[in-house]
Amino acid sequence: MPMTTSAIEQQTVRSACDAPAVAESVTGLILSGGGARAAYQVGVLAGIADLLPAGAQNPFPVIVGTSAGAINAVKLASGAAHFRTAIHELTLFWQSFRSHQVLRSDWAGVMRQASRFFVRSLLGIGRKQVPVALLDSSPLKELLTERLNLAGIEAAINDRHLRAVAVTAFGYESGQAVTFYQGKGTIDAWLRHRRIGQPTQLTVDHLLASSAIPLLFAPVKLEHEYFGDGAVRQSAPISPALHLGANRVLVVGVSGNPRGPGANKPVHRVVSGAQPSLAQISGHMLNSTFIDSLESDIELLERLNLLSRMLPPSMPHQPSPQISEQPTPVQSLAPVEVLVISPSQPLDEIAARHRRELPAALRTFLRGPGATKTSGAGVLSYLLFESGYCSELIELGRRDAMAQKEQLMKFLRLD
Q: How far apart are CA 94 and CA 72, in angstroms?
């Protein structure tokens, strides 16, 4: 039986507020997914690092990442003891990117993978146990293995520079969004509708699984199941941070700023009547996967915070021992402070300006579906792992962070 809007909101209230109660203020960092768009997050983090005093420790005890945001999250967590150094290394990591470090971009690699996809996945000829993927992302595993020091996570947790770090991946067989987290032993696992939390020792394979964009990159096998990009069917992207103990969150998105000036103003639509290209359709599908659920979760959380502030002062935010084990949504409702930073410029337009940076083989491969045209640059914005594009996104992120300097100073308690 389908749930009504009221029932959905009540379920979200419960899931958002069933994180363990903490006496102190615990700040969480949410890094959403989006392929090459995740370079924007690095710029925002670099801006935050500039605001912190010299020698400042990691201001985010809880770090949660999805898709390419998972790579940023784990890199930041592994260097939590030296926050500025970790941000500096992360910036150099993205500024030096080339497509061949992430996926096979040479003619032989592109043609081989495309033919395998067509013959084996579409025609069903040959071996059946071949993961479905248009692009070969095998170089990424070598890059992450070389550049990431995952042992630093455990050291940061033991030294209390970090409470927990988590990455989310989607199980293709179970249909569940699984949040794999590494943290203090006191953090309990959780089970909700189509999303669970599972304690583990994070590995490079967890990052590859979380960032495996459907159809573009091959699924990754973790234990007994194949996993793909964590943004798929992730209905509550903020929830893992709350489960891990955060009661205030900074969200760094990779879409247009849903709270920026003029966000709610009517837009004059210019319609050409042209048939949409495959890249244009795919771009909207990717946006729906990576962006819409996060923005909806932020909007709902803000509504719940408004409801919390409207409660009578005598109404407890947390259930007392006399209340039953299944508290009503109003009884368990507690406010969560949220700050959102998102791109002030359309990233697909920036990608369109850098499309000639793509290697010739990839550019030719993407030309047919229309991804190298302005109308199809949405897909390009996820796949353009080139230094010019990534560097411009980093600079944009830094500027956007500085534009919200006062809000960041207040949020990080630096004033």
A: 10
Choice between 95 and 284, residue whose per-residue pLDDT is larger: 95
Chain-centroid distance, C-alpha 26: 20
Q: Say what the pTM is.
A: 0.82
Mean pLDDT of the chain: 80
HSE-CB of 202 using CA atoms within 13 angstroms = 34
* CB half-sphere exposure, 147, CA atoms < 13 A: 23
What angle (nearest 5°) sits at the alpha carbon of residue 207, between those of residues 202 and 209?
A: 115
Cα gap 404→415, rounded to integer Å? 14
* Phi, psi for residue 29 in degrees, rounded to 5: -115, 125
Give the pair of three-digit tokens for residue 174: 């179970």
pLDDT tens digits along 7-24: 333 334 344 444 444 457
Opening angle at CA 411, ends 390 and 42, nearest 5: 10
C-alpha distances (whole Å) from 332 to each of 300, 347, 357 are 16, 39, 52
Show the tokens assigned to 360: 């010739």
Q: Report DSSP state, residue 122.
A: I
Average pLDDT score over residue span 176-190 = 92
What is the C-alpha separation between 85 and 388, in angstroms, rounded?
23
CA atoms within 13 A on the CB side of 182: 23
Dist. CA 85–CA 161, nearest whole Å: 14
Alpha-carbon span 137 to 208, nearest angstrom:
9
What amino acid occupies position 371?
A
183 and 154 in contact (C-beta within 8 Å)? Answer: no
